[in-house]
């Protein structure tokens, strides 16, 4: 049996009918009137609206221009470098969310897997290591990944 497969009893540990709104998610729960106000602002003042939303994220380098171009040639947050890892996974490291499900997957046969935020953290470190090795190999020789290099990595997952 695959070690990633879990029983429905195990799933019940993570899933509950009780609705909890963590502090970081409270903005997602708004009244219809508030929703209409936010929506109207996103249409009428879309540049300032999305600038304010972007400022809530972690950036490695802040953008120099909010928006340029138009139509399919529009570019937002020009010259900005966003920290995707931190915004999606890293912000949960060391918090209570780290041991909560990030993904619950079930296949057609009913086999279920739960991937916790801590699992995503480990897997993202493996991918980062792969990219690091690929970059090193491209600079020093063949551009293939050597499995033994990955196995020596402290982030290698079995």
Mean pLDDT: 77
Main β-sheet: number of strands, strand sense, barrel status? 2 strands, antiparallel
Count the strands?
A: 6
Distance between the termini: 15 Å
Bin the helical content: 40-55%
**Helices and strands, in N-to-C order?**
HHHEEEEHEEHH
Characterize the overall form: extended
Structural class: alpha+beta
Q: What is the number of helices?
A: 6
The poorly predicted ranges are: none
Q: Compute the gyration radius: what is it?
A: 21 Å
In what order do the strands lie side by side in the largest sheet?
1-4
What does this structure look like?
Helix 2 (32-44) crosses helix 3. The longest helix has 24 residues, at 117-140. It contains six helices and six strands, in the order αααββββαββαα. The chain is an alpha+beta fold and 158 residues long. The chain starts with 7 loop residues before the first helix and ends in a 6-residue tail after the last helix. The chain has a two-stranded antiparallel sheet. It has a two-stranded antiparallel sheet with strand order 2-3. It has a domain at 83-158. It is extended, with a radius of gyration of 21 Å.
Task: Outline the fold blueprint.
Blueprint: H1 8-14, H2 32-44, H3 46-54, E1 59-61, E2 65-68, E3 75-78, E4 81-82, H4 84-88, E5 101-106, E6 112-116, H5 117-140, H6 147-152
Antiparallel strand pairs: 1-4, 2-3, 5-6
């Amino acid at each position: 049996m695959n070690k990633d497969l879990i029983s429905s009893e195990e799933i019940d540990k993570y899933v509950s009918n009780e609705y909890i709104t963590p502090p970081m998610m409270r903005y997602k729960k708004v009244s219809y009137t508030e929703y209409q106000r936010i929506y109207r602002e996103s249409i009428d003042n879309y540049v300032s609206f999305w600038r304010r939303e972007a400022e809530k994220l972690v950036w490695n380098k802040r953008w120099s221009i909010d928006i340029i171009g138009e139509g399919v040639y529009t570019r937002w947050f020009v010259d900005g470098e966003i920290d995707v890892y931190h915004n999606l996974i890293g912000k949960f490291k060391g918090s209570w969310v780290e041991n909560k499900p990030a993904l619950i997957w079930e296949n057609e046969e009913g086999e279920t897997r739960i991937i916790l935020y801590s699992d995503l953290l480990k897997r993202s470190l493996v991918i980062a290591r792969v990219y690091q090795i690929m970059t090193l190999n491209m600079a020093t020789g063949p551009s293939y990944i050597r499995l033994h290099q990955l196995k020596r990595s402290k982030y290698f997952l079995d």
